[in-house]
């Protein structure tokens, strides 16, 4: 079964997905972790693809503001999140620590919806 089929199955059975106020983005990595952005609480949830070990990673050091897009960089152990609310990009470690804002990238962002690496 490929990762996206697993992701669909896990989302259907995860109680945290049902509890999300406004699920806005989902990302998964080859290490078997899934990341769920909730722009209703400006927060991020991490879990195993099988639905176990659900962890609230919070708001990445207070940097999230209507987060709508997420990209994972397993090679560097970082995640990047676009913030529609304040036109910025946040970066943090994959475990949610070290969150900081990269700002507006020189004024180039205007209501960013997604991000890709």
How do the strands and helices of this protein lay out in sequence?
Elements: H1 3-13, H2 15-19, E1 23-28, E2 33-38, E3 43-48, E4 55-58, E5 67-73, E6 78-83, E7 88-93, E8 100-101
Antiparallel strand pairs: 1-2, 2-3, 3-4, 5-6, 6-7, 7-8
Describe this structure in words.
The strands form two sheets. A four-stranded antiparallel sheet has the order 1-2-3-4, covered by helices on one side. Strands 5-6-7-8 form a four-stranded antiparallel sheet, with no helix packed on it. 26% of the residues are buried. The protein has 117 residues and is mainly beta. The protein has two helices and eight strands, in the order H-H-E-E-E-E-E-E-E-E. It has a single domain (3-101), classed as Neuraminidase.
Instruction: Please identify the structural class as seen in this structure.
Output: mainly beta
- Biggest beta sheet summary: 4 strands, antiparallel
Instruction: Give the CATH superfamily.
Output: TolB, C-terminal domain
CATH topology: Neuraminidase
Q: Order of strands in the sheet with the most strands?
A: 1-2-3-4
Average pLDDT confidence is: 86
Q: C-alpha Rg, in Å?
A: 13 Å
**Poorly predicted segments:** none
Q: Give me the strand/helix succession.
A: HHEEEEEEEE
Shape category: globular
Number of strands: 8
* β-strand amount: 35-45%
Number of domains: 1
- The CATH class is identified as Mainly Beta
What are its keywords?
Neuraminidase; four-stranded antiparallel beta sheet; 117 residues; mainly beta; globular
């Amino acid at each position: 079964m490929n990762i996206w089929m697993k992701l669909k199955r896990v989302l259907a059975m995860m109680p945290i997905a049902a509890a999300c106020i406004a699920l806005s983005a989902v990302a998964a990595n080859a290490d078997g972790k899934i990341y769920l952005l909730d722009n209703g609480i400006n927060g991020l949830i991490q879990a195993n693809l099988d639905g176990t070990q659900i962890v609230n990673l919070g708001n990445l050091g207070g940097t999230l503001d209507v987060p709508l897009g997420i990209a994972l960089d397993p090679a560097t152990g970082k995640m990047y999140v676009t913030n529609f609310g304040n036109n910025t990009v946040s970066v943090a470690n994959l475990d949610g620590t070290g969150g900081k804002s990269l700002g507006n990238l020189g004024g180039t962002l205007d209501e960013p919806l997604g991000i890709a690496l």
